[in-house]
Amino acid sequence: MEKSSPAYITGLGIISAIGANVSENRAALEQGQAGIGPATHLKSIHPFPVGEIKYSNKELAEMIGCLDTFPRTALLSIKAAKEAFAPFMGKTEGLNIGLISANTVGGMDLSETLFEAVAERGTFDKRKLWYHECGSITDLTAHALGLEDCWSTSISTACSSSANTIMLGAQLIEQGKMDIVIAGGADSLSKFTLNGFNSLMILDKELCRPFDENRQGLNLGEAAAYVVLMSEKAVTQTNAAKLAILSGYANANDAHHQTASSPDGTGNQLAMLTAIKQSGIALEAIDYINLHGTGTANNDSSEGIAIEKIFSGIPVPDASSTKAYTGHTLGAAGSVEAVFSVLAIMGSKTWPHLRMKTPISGLNWQPNTQSVAKEIRNVLSNSFGFGGNCSALVISKV
After folding, report:
1. Is 292 one of the annotated active-site residues of the chain?
2. Mind listing the pLDDT tens digit for each residue in 132-142?
3. Overall pTM > 0.90
């Protein structure tokens, strides 16, 4: 299909354990400064380290001018979405605008309090149930942006969720159905997710070590991140700077297991190859890979094998995982790492891979533990989730 317009990335917004905005996140990446440690706001009997955002719900609400009774996921979502879209407010008259937001926990942090209320008082505030569903986060975000009358939808495909929002947003731009799409996602920490991942026995009791031979699992994190995608028409009207372009994307499924990647990386490989093919660039033109790299034995091995197969016979590009900085932020991970990929292009440098001491045996390549300063024209950003959901984005310099 002929594209009505490319999908340009013109706005970025993020809040994570390493910073409350784009500039703070960039500085932490440049300094190799991680944000993982003991939980403060999440109350749990488990001492697992997490990538927790340091602000309370009340502090977040004050930052964005919202009620602190909103779910934490919504507060994070609104914070990042406002940062991304703020430069264009008041400049979009006559343009078709959409919001695509991802999450996996919805208002679970509030839902968990209902069980406690029933146990203590025999009843609970039924109004909080409205926030439980994932779509409520999208509704609250749209309202905070003044987009309640615009088209919006939610995506929840586990850890690939927000990467898929960016894909769908690009498709809508390319097909001429939208002029602007705000795409991304958010997830907050909750007892539900911590206990769930603990039951799978894939949480590291120490700081995670993606792609290390002795890796023991992942650290959960919380974050929100959005990108603003625009058509050429919208770029002209809003006088936006073209930060990057989404040149390729793909989603695949390896149909292997509910919570594990296939050992040979079938879905991972298919998603990456299809995204690169769609971008129209050669394998050698990939300058940097933002790895999914969670720190689990299965995931890192599967992704590593898939990359080795794809780049067989040629050098594997510089690569690193940024989850050692933020923790695994689940539904927000894809958009968090899309923002980090754009920052790598803008800053002409890769982000250092943290805490890897012994590379995975059997792989013929390894991530870069030091930042590499160079022109970055094309970044491959991977997001692989439960249920075999494998997504890959190719983000390119304009």
Report:
1. yes
2. 889 999 999 99
3. yes
